[in-house]
Every structure is written in C-alpha cells, then in structure tokens.
Design a protein that fits this description.
The structure is a homodimer. Chain A is α/β, with parallel strands linked by helices and about 200 residues long. Helix content of chain A is about 55%, strand content about 10%. Chains A and B meet through helix 1, strand 4, strand 5 and helix 8 of A and helix 1, strand 4, strand 5 and helix 8 of B.
Chain lengths: ~200, ~200
C-alpha cells in the first residue's frame, strides 16, 4: 500500500519543515510549491500570478476602480482560480500515484481522499508563530509583534477560506485530520523526537 | 528528565487502550481509575460515590425532592467534589513524581503542567465511537444508535464540564494538547502503527 502523507499547517507553525523532515526520514518525495510550479507550466500562466491566487484567496477581489465592474472582475478571476484548482488537483493526484510522498498544503488531504492519505495538521500558539517567523528572517524586522500577528492571522484566514471554498470542510477541524501536532514552544526536531519517544 | 504522558479522551475513542499500549511499550506506569481508588482510600469515602462525582460532574445536582433545598444540596456536594479534586491532584502529583507514567483523564495535563507532561487528546467521529462501544460489549445491546449517541454525548459533556470547571480551559481545544489523535475507523493498534511509520 502506498504511503501518502498530507500536511495542513497554520502559517508559522513549522509545518513545511516537519513535512520535509518526515519525507527525508521515510525517503519519499516531498511537494509544496513545486506543485504550483508544475501547474503554472501546464496552464501557461505566469508563476507569480498562479502563486498569488493559490496562496491567497480562491477569489481575488481587485479594488473596484481597476475593473469595469466589481462582479465582472470577480467572475473572471474566479474562473481562473477554479481552473487552477482543477489543474492543481490533477497534478497532485498524478504525483501521489507516481510515488509515496509528503504533500504540504493545497487541500491535498481532500483531493487525495480516495487514496486514504495520512492527514496531519500542524498548529501553534501566536507567540511561537511570531518567534518562528522572526527566526526564519523572512519578516521585516521593523514590523512589531502586533502587526506581525495580524499578518499571520490574515494569511491563515486566507488558507482557511481557500480550503473551505474547495472542500466545504472546516480548515483545522480535528475530525478532518488523523493527527494534529502542536509545535508551540518547540523546535520541529524536538516535536519529531517526542513523538518517536512515545511510540518507540 | 522524567516522562509523563497525559491522555484526555472522548468517550468511545479508545483513549484508555491507547494509554495502556503506550505505557506497555515504554515500560512505564499506567493510571486511570486506580487514582480514584487511591483517593477514596485516603478520604474514606465510598468508592462508588467518589467515582460518581469524578466521572460525572463537578457539581452533582440531586433532584430537589431529596434534599432540604436545591442550593443547600448543591453547595454540599460542591464542597465534596472540590475536596475530592484537591485530593486527586495530590495523588496524581505524587504518582508522577514517583515514576514515569501515563495518566488517562482526571485533568492530569493541567494538574501536572509544571512537570511539562506530553499531553495527548484522543478523539473520534460518532459512528466509530458507537462501533467501539458495542464491540467492547459494555453497552446494552437493546440501545439503538440514536440513544447510544445521546449517551456518549452526555458523558463527554460531563467530562468537558468537569475539565473546564477545574482548569478554566476548554476541553479538547487543540492548543491545550501537544498531540491530537483521531481514531475514527481505526483500531488503536493501527493508530500506533501509523504513527510509528511516519516517525520511524
């Protein structure tokens, strides 16, 4: 039986690192943004544009002043993001059929449900997310904690909307996952070691 | 460093079995009802009475016809259940200090928070809980699924109230646990194997 592990994750929870470590330990394939790259090649859309739609919202609402009418723009972008989602689903299925793998994000748990994936969700409290973001150096150091927290919440709100839009399920609801891992106040290495310890 | 594993669990989720298996695999002590027994010995109350209070509600409301007045009875039982909780906390702390252990239920995650326990919560969807309850043969076979579901929900509501009453935390809230394990459609053996597989 094939081993497919999907990882949903809150922003700043270390889900990507956990996914990579698991894939490394098991010696299986790992996917996240590569999937988006693949999609962008197939649909011939610019990578940045695809990335923006996939990462941010199922429906991107541009300011009304840009388009001819709000609803027209909405419909147009909606069509694009839905076709990207379909393309993305096909790519994910293709990859999962090709070999055992870990897939981070992209509703992979839902898309691959017929293949019975092991579904992990990684989460964390806000202080730990802030700390992790700062340590990774991907955040403007002038941003204070309050603003950074707002940014993190915003990204998670978008992930949640994206997930719920395409799956009709609640993002982060324990019943949608096999395992929920709390990474608060811990390094990902520690988390893996802890779980190893209890199931050794 | 000592290893303390606490397990919160929904009724019918297999949390006790998981706790026992973990304790066995790690070769450490396992506690659940034994603690209540210990308490009952110490406080000199009948086991059944203690068990009823600890298992069901922080405040047991007897029908108004039994006592002199509703509030008087409530206060009285409240006092008893609080003193039992304090006693229970002491016993749990004593045991955790004595040796590495797995403790199921009893707000142990909260009581032992200064000892930095690894906090697990075990949950499951309703059909799996019903199936598990029937398989264990602890349920009246004449009880239909709807009634059994109501009974299960009632027990969990009591556990939730008990936990929230003494910890001021939300029972089952992912942020209160290090690991949340979904046992829906699975045997506990399978669950352990799955986790072993991903962290091997």
């Amino acid at each position: 039986m094939s081993m497919i592990i999907t990882i949903g994750r809150e922003f700043g929870s270390g889900g990507r690192e956990l996914g990579k470590r698991i894939a490394e330990q098991l010696g299986i394939a790992y996917y996240d943004k590569e999937i988006v790259m693949e999609i962008s090649k197939k649909t011939d859309l610019a990578y940045d544009y695809v990335h923006q739609i996939v990462e941010q919202k199922p429906i991107v609402y541009y300011p009304i002043t840009i388009g001819t009418s709000f609803s027209a723009v909405g419909t147009n972008v909606n069509k694009n993001s839905t076709s990207i989602y379909v393309e993305q689903s096909n790519v994910i299925k293709e990859m999962a059929q090709k070999s055992d793998c870990v897939i981070v994000g992209r509703c992979a748990d839902y898309i691959l449900k017929d293949m019975n994936p092991f579904r992990i969700f990684v989460y964390s409290d806000m202080p730990s997310k802030i700390k992790r973001c700062r340590e990774k150096g991907e955040v403007d150091q002038n941003l204070n904690d309050r603003k950074l927290a707002r940014m993190i919440k915003g990204i998670d709100r978008n992930r949640s909307r994206y997930y719920e839009f395409y799956t009709s399920l609640k993002w982060g609801d324990p019943l949608n996952y096999d395992l929920m891992i709390n990474t608060s106040n811990k390094t990902i290495k520690e988390v893996v070691n802890e779980i190893v310890k209890i199931v050794k």
